[in-house]
Design goal:
InterPro entries: Cytochrome-c3_hydrogenase_C (IPR027394), NADH_UbQ_OxRdtase-like_20kDa (IPR006137), NiFe-Hase_small_C_sf (IPR037148), NiFe_Hase_small_N_sf (IPR037024), NiFe_hydrogenase_ssu (IPR001821). About 30% of the residues lie in helices and about 10% in strands. By secondary structure, it is an alpha/beta fold. The protein has 2 domains: about 220 residues, Rossmann fold (3-Layer(aba) Sandwich), CATH 3.40.50; about 130 residues, Cytochrome-c3 hydrogenase, C-terminal domain (Cytochrome-c3 Hydrogenase, Chain A, domain 2, Irregular), CATH 4.10.480.
């Protein structure tokens, strides 16, 4: 009889502490669904790998996202009501889009999902968050709108909208003791989000320690470095070799790149399957992952104020270094003089 072929890794793994986890993903904040669309491009891991059980050690995961779901209407909404009644089991709440302030208008509402079965009235996005956040094992804000307010929360907006930490409180904790987890980006880099969700699923399963977050509630391993730290063009910056028009391979700071002061790993990670990465492929960094986005980075395409000083300061040093490196490179591009076919040995060898 042939022995059952269970992979060795599966035999040695701990079982997850919970067998099933639902991901309730509300896209009814003020947003464009761009983060949902973005994660369909994830590969590390892909959403398919997580949902189809291809990743060892994970509980069974069910996704409820209105843009990606096969169900619609009441069939889709039933999971939300079950979660509200405390009958869904363990779930992670994902919030996409900024949270409007429903206290500042006299009538109507800014954003809603589904209908209250008792009153026949729309259930506002804020009400869903109020109902579900206390029951979730973890709450994740995806995209800069949901994390810090983003584009909809610009100066002059009429909705008074904000990010999830502003709404729930920066010190808020889930019933499992987790802070709000913020994965910013406009849109989010797909693997950044899926990797964070995977980490949280492992944590819910009892197989990972507390997720490390910075002061802005971002995963530290994803947002601990700047765009500039990982930019393909940083060598040009260091030599004060700046682009003055698009299409140049040189540093884009004079064209409005904010990379030196922006926490984002996109130049290192790429956008999809390692390809792309804003400045690497010619696009200035406009700081889309940052709590101050967009107001503090506007007008886009103007040289950042701090960049003028730093690029002047590096100008003298960079020009001298570039010159010296040019001479050294000329030398390094020439072979040593003893490589010849004359009838004499000039290598310096003495028998
Ligand atoms: Fe759309 Fe950007 Fe807001 Fe995401 S963060 S919902 S991509 S506007
Ligand atoms: Fe830094 Fe931007 Fe220049 Fe890249 S293009 S080196 S991120 S300033
Ligand atoms: Fe946003 Fe800049 Fe990162 Fe590009 S490099 S995703 S513009 S923060």
């Amino acid at each position: 009889m042939v022995a059952a072929t269970v992979p060795y890794g599966r035999k040695t793994q701990h079982s997850p502490a919970v067998k099933e986890v639902h991901v309730l993903w509300i896209t009814a904040g003020l947003g464009c669904d761009g983060d949902t669309v973005s994660i369909t491009a994830a590969t590390q891991p892909s959403i398919e790998d997580v949902l189809r059980g291809a990743i060892p050690g994970l509980p069974k995961v069910y996704l409820h996202n209105p843009v990606l779901a096969y169900e619609n209407g009441d069939e889709f909404m039933k999971y939300w009501y079950l979660a509200d009644d405390g009958r869904l089991g363990a779930f992670v709440l994902v919030v996409e889009g900024s949270i409007p302030n429903e206290k500042i208008h006299r009538e109507g509402y800014w954003a809603a999902l589904g209908t209250d079965q008792r009153t026949g009235q729309p259930i506002t996005t804020c009400e869903w968050i109020d109902r579900l956040a206390p029951k979730a094992v973890a709450v994740v804000a995806i995209g800069t709108c949901a994390t810090y307010g983003g584009i909809h929360a610009m100066e002059g907006n009429p909705t008074g909208c904000m990010g999830l930490p502003d709404y729930l409180g920066w010190d808020w904790k889930s019933k499992a003791g987790l802070p709000i987890v913020c994965v910013p980006g406009c849109p989010v880099q797909p693997d950044n989000f899926m990797e964070t969700l995977l980490y949280l699923l492992y944590q819910v399963a009892g197989l990972a320690p507390m997720i490390p977050l910075d002061d802005c509630l971002r995963p530290t391993w994803l947002f601990g470095k700047t765009v500039h730290d990982g930019c393909d063009r940083a060598g040009y910056y260091e030599q004060a070799d700046f682009a003055h028009e698009y299409g140049s391979p040189k540093c884009l700071v004079k064209l409005g790149c904010w990379g030196p002061v922006v926490n984002c790993n996109v130049p290192k990670r790429g956008w999809m399957a390692g390809i792309g990465g804003c400045p690497n492929v010619g696009g200035i960094c406009i700081g889309c992952t940052m709590p101050g986005f967009p107001d503090k980075f506007m007008p886009f395409m103007d040289e950042p104020p701090g960049a003028r000083l730093s690029s002047v300061a590096i100008g003298f040093y960079g020009r001298v270094i570039r010159k010296l490196r040019g001479w050294t490179m000329d030398t390094a591009n020439k072979e040593p003089k003893w490589r010849h076919r004359r009838p004499e040995l000039t290598t310096g060898y003495h028998p």
